[in-house]
Each structure stands twice: as structure tokens, then as C-alpha cells.
Amino acid sequence: MRKPLIAGNWKMHGSLNQVQTLIGDIKAKFPTDSTTQVLVLPTFVHLSLVQQLLKNTTISYGAQNLYVGSSGAFTGEVAGAMLKELGVTHVLVGHSERRSIFHEELALIAAKFKAALDAGLTPILCVGETQTERENGITEKIISEQLDSIISLTGIAAFQRAIIAYEPVWAIGTGLTATPEQAQAVHAFIRQHLAQNKVDIAKAIRILYGGSMKAENAASLLAMPDIDGGLIGGASLEASSFLAIIHAAEQAFQRKNELTKEGS
Ligand code: PEP
Q1: Could you tell me the pTM of the whole model?
Q2: Which of 43, 68, 205, 263 is the most exposed place for a label (fewest CB within 10 A)?
Q3: Which residue has the higher pLDDT, 34 or 89?
């Protein structure tokens, strides 16, 4: 069984005080026997504080971005090795906001994915189509390109140490959510696409859904067989909604476990 992962992408939000309150509120109600892996992704400047606040908990923390290489004349950038020193375990790569606002192209995203692995970090590769691409019927083509650009640089084996997040661009921060069936169809496609290269890796990799996931819709999305968790933006900034999504993941995992047992 793939262990569920719920990751909170805080984007460019939060002050030191707000971060302290949010982590405090999450810790206060965090289930000690959680079967769900939980990760928060604060800004770079909040990482040290988050590191202190999450000491002696099972909640991990990651970064929202990194640059390639281990050091160099790259003003304003942060290397994977620097993140690793701060106890960071995961890093987002290819988030649609990086692709669209910061014009990150496939080649740079692939290089960042490799840099994350080289630094000993787990990349969470975000893929997804825009509204127009969906309407033009090229969702699978776009996602194949996003995956293949990485596979051709790193080889399929690299996906053993990675996570994928399917995030339809039209659903991010818009309040629109893919229906569970729409999301499941793309998740299954991603798994099938990877299986063309290596079946074991395709079966084992965790594929998260992201795009306006919240307490109200998490259960139905997480119930889908190929949805292994969520990458949550807005709803991760409030402890109560983030905890409700974690709870939904726990329940979905239990149910999937039961179904697997019944089937075997
Ligand atoms: C995201 O930032 O990856 C995201 C899915 O945001 P939201 O949940 O706000 O749509």
C-alpha cells in the first residue's frame, strides 16, 4: 500500500507570528497515531523557525523551490545542499506558478528535479494542464511532455525517489476542483505512462492531487484508487481545514487497505 501524503504549500504567505500560531494549532490536534505522512512547505525565510517548531514531531517540512548546483554566482537562489542542512526533506519542482509566472521551462525543471535528488531531497514534481489545453483535448500530451522531459534527463529509476502532484492549472487557487473521476483519470494516465518505462516504479510512486482541495471535497478525491494524497494551497493555511484533510486521508487509507485485504 502506498502511504498517503498530505502536503501544505504555504506559497508566499505568513509572518513569523502566523507561522508559529499555525504550527502550534496543527501540533495541538495532530493525531499521534497518524498513518498519513504530513509535510508543510513554508517560504525559505520561515524554514529555520519551522525546523525548531517541528522538532520531536512526525511532521516533515520542505521547500517550495531550489536552484541547480550546490553553490555559485546565482544571486537570489538557494541550493539543495543548503536546504538539506536545514533538515528539509522534500522540495516542489515544476509548480504551475513557477512555470507560468517565472517562465520555468521543461529543461530547467528537469535540471531542478535532478538537483533535488543529487542533494538527497525528494522532489515533488507538479504536472498539469491549463484550461485551454484541457478544452483542446491535449491534457495527456502536455503531461507526457512534462514527465518525459524529466525521464530523458534522469532515467525512470529516479522516480523511485520522487513524488508526483497532478495539479490542473485551472483548479489551483480558483475554487474549481477536478471531479474525483476527472482527477482519477489523469492519475491513472500518469501511472500508465510511467509503467511503459517501469511497472514497479509506476505502481509504487505516490501521486498527489492538487487544486482547491479542501475539507469538503478531500474525502471523495482521496477515495480514488490512484490518488495517494494532496498538495494543498489555500486550505493548508488554516489548521482546522488542514487537519480535516489529514483525517480524510487517514480514513481513505483505511478503506483502501480493507478493500485490498478483501480482494486478496
Ligand atoms: C497549490 O498551490 O499547489 C494548490 C493546489 O493551491 P490551492 O489548493 O489553493 O488550489
Answers
A1: 0.97
A2: 263
A3: 89
